[in-house]
Each structure stands twice: as structure tokens, then as C-alpha cells.
Design goal:
alpha/beta, single chain, 10 strands, binds 5'-O-[(R)-(carboxyoxy)(hydroxy)phosphoryl]adenosine, binds zinc ion
């Protein structure tokens, strides 16, 4: 089935893969309104996300979040022309709530449903700030569950190829685990980067793993920090450890991303996902891209972490490209590999 919608159709996007209930409204690549509710506080005392708690929170937040996004955009729900939803990857129970809600809205409004890949949504977020992507770009997606270096074409039409991935922990996961080790709390990324502000990035030389040309590995780095902390005597220099760890992560990520651009003759690098909110990563990437004449694109920090606008953005691209609709049996795929922006698993 293909969408017979005119270009610029109004797309409602729904995101529920983790602990954020995100809703966005996008038409023709322009963000009209959004709302994000988070259950982060409910997980903080467990030091990580509890899937059932997240799913219950999505259930409670979904309808109010849709209403708020519509109100902020000054739009009536009857104006929505398509519904896009994250079909994976993510927590199965959490994804299922978003998919059920998206199906209900699509059926009630009599509009098509489109399932999308969460990580393609992260990349698409950048188009809300900086307009359409060029014909070719390299994408570095760095989130709590994934770290991938990608070759991108037309996000809505072309397959997505992986130049490299992490062999073990994701970059965000490493931030979260090291933050926990240092007693900085949850979520770890923002807490660790805040602690790093007062530290010296050259205080400790933590290892930079070299897994093939474009591959990553962060579990050795995490262990190196743990060993350093165990061996330390006296009060822990938390700021220096945080800054040195952050430097090791950002150094590897930016060096490989820039090398991928240079090697493949690509002049645009897009960095997306929660870790792209990190100030040091943004600054180092900017400096290294400038040296090589590469254009760096990174969404505004609020669009880097999970949100509904990014799902509406990728939905809007797919609708405008005339992509197929999701089948009625659309279901969650919690570990879906990233091969294309549309994702239509049926179990
Ligand atoms: O993309 P995202 O919101 O959710 C997933 O799809 O996983 O990414 C969340 C991850 C978490 O690991 C979080 O600690 C990390 O992004 N993160 C950061 C920062 N803000 C969020 N990591 C480093 N520095 C930050 N400022
Ligand atoms: Zn994400």
C-alpha cells in the first residue's frame, strides 16, 4: 500500500522506546509542536530504567502528551494526515504502548500509519534545525544503546549502510556506567559531563580502543576507569576522572567519524543521538571537521535526546517520498537492526 498524500502532509510522531513519551507534529520538514514527558525520576532510585515502570508511565502520559503537542501547535487532531511511530529498537513493553496508541489514533482519524526506526529518527531530528540532508553524508549515531558510523543517502529512499559499530557497550552506556561508578547518579551522561567541566581532560590518559578502521569499543575504557578508581588513594579526583574519560570517548568518536568522511570523499558529518548533546563532543567534532573542510551538522541539544519531533520528522520524509504504509499487524522489534528509515515488523 502506498501513501497517496500530498507533499507537506501533517504527521503526528509518537516515540516510546525508552523512558521518554515523545510526541511531535511535523509538516513538510517543519516542526509545528511537540511535547515530551519523562519517567526518568521514577527510575533514578534503581540506577537504571525499569521496563515495566517505563511502560506504565507511557500509558499514563500518552494522551495528555498528544493533546499538549496539538495545543502548542494550534492544530486540531482532525488535521493530522498520518501517524508515525517508533517500531524499534527499544524496550519491547514500552514500544508496544506507543504502537498501540499510534494505531488507535490512525484508525480513529482514518489516516495511514508508518513504523519507523528509532535511530533514523535521531538522524532526521537534524533536518528540523538545518533543513534537508545533502545527497550523501556520514552519520555518527551515539545513544544509550547504540554507537554506529553510517553512510547515508536519501534517508527516506536509500538503504542505510554501516561503516562500523560498537563491539560492546554503546557510548551513552559507557557514560552511564562510569557516572554510576563515580557516584554521579542517573542519568549519567549529563551528570558526568557537568562534573567534567571542572576537570583536566589530560589528567589521566585512558585507553582509546582501536577496533578496525571504523569500529568502536567502550567496555575496556569503562574497566580502565574502574581499575584506576580501585587503585586510587585518598579522595577521588572525580572531575579529572570525568574529564579524562569524556575526552577518551570524544577523541575516538570524532577521529573515526572524520576519517570516514575523508576516506569516502563525503563533506558532511551528522552527529545524532543522546550523546550528541555532549558539549565536548560537539566542540571537538567542530574543530576536527573545520580542519578538514567538513560541514558538521548536530541537532540542538534538546533534539538530540529522545523526543517525538524526530519521529514525526522521519515520518514526514517518508510520507513525502511516497513510502509504503505500515501493515495493520505492525508490532515492536526491540532489537531491529538499522537498515532503512521505515520499519514494519509483524510478529
Ligand atoms: O538517544 P537517547 O536519548 O536514548 C537512547 O536512544 O538510548 O540517549 C540516551 C543516552 C544516555 O546514555 C545518556 O547518558 C546520554 O545519551 N547522554 C549524554 C548526554 N546527554 C545524554 N551523554 C553524554 N553527555 C551528555 N550531555
Ligand atoms: Zn534514542
Amino acid at each position: 500500500m502506498g501513501t497517496a498524500l500530498p507533499p507537506g502532509a501533517l504527521v503526528l510522531g509518537i516515540e516510546s522506546s525508552c523512558d521518554e513519551t515523545g510526541v511531535g507534529l511535523v509538516a513538510g520538514g517543519k516542526l509545528l509542536g511537540e511535547c515530551t514527558a519523562t519517567s526518568m525520576d521514577a527510575h533514578a532510585r534503581f540506577g537504571g530504567i525499569v521496563p515495566e515502570v517505563a511502560a506504565r508511565a507511557h500509558l499514563e502520559s500518552m494522551v495528555p502528551a498528544v493533546r499538549t503537542a496539538l495545543k502548542r501547535a494550534g492544530i486540531d487532531k482532525s488535521d493530522v494526515e498520518a501517524v508515525a511511530v517508533t517500531a524499534g529498537p527499544g524496550l519491547a513493553t514500552a514500544l508496544t504502548v506507543g504502537i498501540a496508541a499510534a494505531k488507535a489514533y490512525a484508525i480513529a482519524l482514518g489516516v495511514p500509519l508508518i513504523g519507523v526506526h528509532h535511530l533514523a529518527g535521531h538522524v532526521a531530528a537534524d533536518t528540523l534545525d538545518h533543513g534537508p540532508l545533502p545527497e550523501r553524508s556520514v552519520g555518527l549515531v551515539v545513544s544509550g544503546g547504540h554507537t554506529s558510523l553510517l553512510m547515508l543517502g536519501d534517508l527516506a529512499r536509500d538503504p542505510i549502510t554501516h561503516l562500523g559499530d560498537t563491539a560492546d557497550d554503546a557510548a551513552g552506556e559507557a557514560f552511564d556506567k562510569v557516572a554510576r561508578l563515580l557516584g554521579l547518579g542517573y542519568p549519567g551522561g549529563p551528570a558526568l559531563s557537568k562534573a567534567a567541566l571542572d576537570g583536566d581532560p589530560d589528567a589521566i590518559r585512558f585507553p582509546r580502543a582501536n577496533v578496525g578502521k571504523y569500529g568502536f569499543s567502550f567496555s575496556g575504557l569503562k574497566s580502565a576507569v574502574a581499575r584506576w578508581v580501585e587503585a586510587a588513594e585518598g579522595p577521588l579526583p572525580v572531575a579529572d576522572i570525568a574529564a579524562s574519560f569524556q575526552e577518551a570517548v570524544c577523541d575516538v568518536l570524532t577521529a573515526k567519524a572524520v576519517a570516514a568522511c575523508t576516506d569516502h570523499g563525503v563533506d558532511t558529518l551528522v552527529i545524532a543521538g543522546g550523546v550528541a548533546a555532549n558539549r565536548r563532543l560537539r566542540d571537538l567534532a567542530e574543530a576536527r571537521c573545520a580542519e578538514r573542510g567538513i560541514t558538521l551538522r548536530v541537532p540542538a541539544p534538546r533534539l538530540c535526546t529522545d523526543n517525538g519531533a524526530m519521529i514525526a520528522a522521519v515520518g514526514s520524509m517518508l510520507v513525502d517520498a511516497g513510502a509504503p504504509w505500515a501493515p495493520p499487524g505492525l508490532s515492536a522489534d526491540s532489537s531491529a537492526p538499522l537498515t532503512a528509515a521505515a520499519l514494519h515488523p509483524v510478529r
